[in-house]
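Re: the pair you flagged

First of the two:
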Amino acid sequence: EKQVRRMLADPRASSLVTSFAMKWLTLTNLDQVIPDPVLFPGFDDQLRRDFSMEAEAFIGSIFSDDRSVLELLTADYTFLNERLARHYDISGVRGDQFRKVTLTEKARWGLLGKAAVQLRTSYGDRTSPVLRGAWVLDKLLGTPPTPPPPDTATDLSQKAGEQPKTVRARLEQHRDKATCRMCHGVIDPTGLPLENFDAIGQWRTTDAQANAPIDARTVLPNGVPIDGVVELRAQLLLKRPETFARTVTERLMMYGVNRQLEYFDMPQVRAIVRGAAKENYKLSSLVLGIVNSDAFRKQSVGQVGNLRRIGNPPGQIQER
């Protein structure tokens, strides 16, 4: 325990942000999404870098201060420079330097309010409730949705000559097909509450292309009706905060033991989460639980040697 706490306090522990968290959340490859310059004329590579720096600084503050991992979803602060603050329509921030800023708008709290997440789960010309819903299910709840069957039509592009429709309207038309309804009935309700964020993370109340109001209402798979990102966040943590804590624990353990987890690992994961609940799921409580687990302590020599490798953990942590 003494050595773990010493290592977590070392500046080099910041690699947990860049080598673990940013890759777990698939935020290291924001350049894979290229916003349409006609639709988003103010977007450029510097703003993309600002998105990434905000996400790293935000996650890093929670890890370095040994705060509860639940704050990854609930924290009412972030790190902004002047340009990113303007992008978020936040006043009072001057200069290029990033600094901690308290957020008055609850929609911006936690990971769900970060432009890096919204860009990564969009296409260059539109948002995607499907990508966003799948991201929430996989990265936050640890329940990745099943990929679509082969040859399933997934194109929601606006058809030439048609009356412009909102992404939601196009998605509902797509979901009417029997082959699509089963999966979309789980994925879409989790992504639609994020529709007030456009493809580059700016808040909007109107779909500019369709000239129609944004409707962020939905009914979650558990039957609970919600409206927007604030209510989605509340549902993610309201009754079962241990679900998100378990997801973080699973991904941390995969990173620590350098392999995918198996069924026989899950009792250890559940025990770690139960123990960490006594400390409100502080990062150190999860790491200490993993270090004291049989999965970590009873590895072969080859497995331990592999822990020196820095990069994407195998399997689920990589982009599916």
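Second of the two:
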Amino acid sequence: MPKDNHTFVQNLQHVVGYFPSVVQAAGKLGINRQQLTKYLSGTSTPSLATLRTIASYFGVEPDDMFLPPRDFKKRWSPPAKVEGLPPQLEGTVQDILYHMHRTHGDMDEICGFYHAYINLLTHPNKIGRAYTVIQRHGDFTAVKTIMFASPYGAENKPRRPIKINGIALYLGERIYILDAQNVGQPNARIQSIALYPSSFPQADYLTGLLMTTNNARNRPIYSTPIVFQRLNADRIRKDDMRACGVFFRDSGNVAPDILELLNSVQR
């Protein structure tokens, strides 16, 4: 335990000041309110286990809590806030924003360029391949997907891209992606994706399930396996984008390991 408890107190006051009250901060940290008050006043010092709990919640290392305040503020800054929400929603939204803030370092490991594959339930003999870019912007991890409903190689006619924007969240051992398309329009669609396992960035693939709903009455809610294949790229490449579209399952254009992964993911 570092000896300079004064800097710890200042830094703890800084992070706890983000919460509306000490009571709420204690609840989120899982610490007794009276005990947290003692830490804030400097009359008591947390055990190493409690220090690790506090540091982990704020996404820093235990030793960071003893940095000079100016250095600590470079290491930790408050997450984004949304003002004006109804009280019953504010807590939920702020919890999500705060979790994004404290886990954005984990999301860095999945940022990159991917081909995403799904089984097309309306055409069981076909596979769809899309181009997905995952990038962090501050506390947020943005996901942009470009897909084509037309067959791969259909260069003799215009192929209008379908663009979908979403946001990703790392929670536990899974990555959750939520995106929306044409909200408010007759062809509106909302999708959620759960990806696992967490063995990245070494893994070449991220596998999971996509659940989607279309507001067209004749299209039911459904789920389907999805595979993200990491591309060896450090920028957007047009060739990777052109390689997207709809493929016949037996065309040989989809690698056998991709097909195996799509077949192995349980719905």
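The CA atoms of residues 117 and 129 lie 5 Å apart.

-B.
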